[in-house]
Amino acid sequence: MTIDVSAERVIPLPPEQVARYAMDWRHDAEWTQGIRTAELTREADEGGFGVGAEVTRTAHFLGRRIDYVLRVAAYEPPGLLDMISVAGPMPMHVTYTFEPDPSGTLARIRVRGGEGGFYRLAAPLLARQVRTSIGKDLRDLEHRLAMH
Q: Fewer CB within 10 Å, N side or C side of the chain?
């Protein structure tokens, strides 16, 4: 993968509370940079949200509208949500983890992706943009949770 970036932040709330909000696709547009809409377009085999479910997100990134579909590869609340793109402009793998920390929750987002063509050439810029974006995501997640 051309890009492999992560960001982390300690949020002064329990992992269950942080994960419950962050893992709920209905909140994606509230705290995730550039996401305008998110909708559950395929339920998990058992119904609802879980492994196999797909969320379609519409985002704006680097001045462009991007539509992409993320399929849930692993869902182990409150610790892990792992998603892989199955449709969109580039291959992407997004992992959210939430671990207990003496001050609350260590929240981490890791994004990998961007193989081939334009993305290989733009990797340094793209990696910097993604790192900044996911850092802001975690800041906004903390602010959103403080409001609830």
A: C
